[in-house]
Amino acid sequence: MTTLSRRLFGGLSLATAVGITAACGRDAETPGGGGSGDTSAQPIAEGQATGDLTVWAMGAEGEKLPELLKGFQEENPDVNVTVTPVPWDSAHDKFTSAIAAGTAPDVAQVGSTWMAEFVSLNALEPTPEEIDTSVFFDGAAAATEVDGTAYGVPWYVETRLVYYRTDLAEQAGITEPPTDWEGLKSMAAAMQEKADATWGIALQPGGTGSWQTVLPMMWSNGGGVVNDDNSEFTFEDEKNAEAVEYYQSYFTDGIADPAPAQGTTEQDFASGKVPMFISGPWMMAAVEAVGGEGFADKYSVFVMPKKETSTSFLGGANLGVFQGTQNRDAAWKLVQYLSQPEVQVEWFAQSTDLPSVESAWEDESVASNEKFEAFHEQLGTAMAPPNIATWEQVASKFDAQIEQVCKADLDPAQALATTQSEATTIGTGA
Predict the structure, then answer these.
(1) Is the pTM of this model over 0.85?
(2) How far is CA 66 from the centre of its chain?
(3) Could you tell me which CATH class the domain 161-311+385-426 is placed in?
(4) Between 20 and 30 A from 154 (CA), which of 30, 136, 166, 347?
(5) Same fold for the domain at 5-159+315-375 and the one at 161-311+385-426?
(6) Could you state, in order of their start, the residue ranges of all structural domains in the chain?
(7) How far apart are CA 126 and CA 122, in angstroms?
């Protein structure tokens, strides 16, 4: 996800296998898996998939994927697929080590912020022309592209909405969710004053992953962190400073907790201590599990309030085929299978991962839930972080400055100037 911070909530497990044999499928003598750097893609051979495939998937996806792939193996009885679950918190290092050693899997779930880095390591195959990338959400498809070439496909998508307690909002005199920044802040303050909430909204006061909430506010205000061709950083844009100042005001005005306890979002939301927070679709099941029977009727979600636009973070994960695979055709056939609308709907039922194929949202099992429909609406305007090889490093520097803004009252313009300087030193990796 991005390096989906969301997946840190997922369970971990030991390696699970589908099929009876495993094969590394790599050219171990060639660093990076043996790729030549050619951005052209060979056609996928016709016929059924055969042979051995290794697949890496992270967290909960790694646990659930073997069940989904039973359908692929029924359609392709001469293929053996071995799925290895990898914990999210160690996945990036495991991938880079495997790429360097030439032992990467044939197919893998790839965090959306890793694409450019892995392409710079000559690790991923370009997407064959037979795969129609127009069926995916535009923002998700764009997140697989590096220098105009697609590497892999979006597997699932996620975006962030505002969760709020509808019962407490009514108690505060609010019957309709806000549509702009001013309305969101007024609602949060009203929840404190009139609904006995300790804090009006939960916002991350810096630290790892806080950029995932702050950057969309910068986009919403017309700002951004790179120029159009991703060649230069633009953190010092005045529109960015306005957005960070707005974010900071929740802490300086005492509406958001500058030192929240870790791992209490669901409990605080269910108790009413903190009646609003911003997160993704996985939190629906989490808050309902804590809130108990009937709690689903006490909360709802709404799209991000706008300044110039209503823009949220676009995350999720992609599927990539690694250079040097010795079973390339079967690997891409597996990617094609997982991109079918009906398979995406089946995966949604198993995992609640939102389909990346737009037509899958027409299925009743997805479209009938009003809360999921709000996520669908937000996906139309959600944006992904810049697809540059160094984004993980730059984001870490940005997170540190956000923490100073929220906890030490650092001037937003100064924080952005520092981030600009640090990011420029790191470079884009081009």
Answers:
(1) no
(2) 22
(3) alpha beta
(4) 30
(5) yes
(6) 5-159+315-375, 161-311+385-426
(7) 10
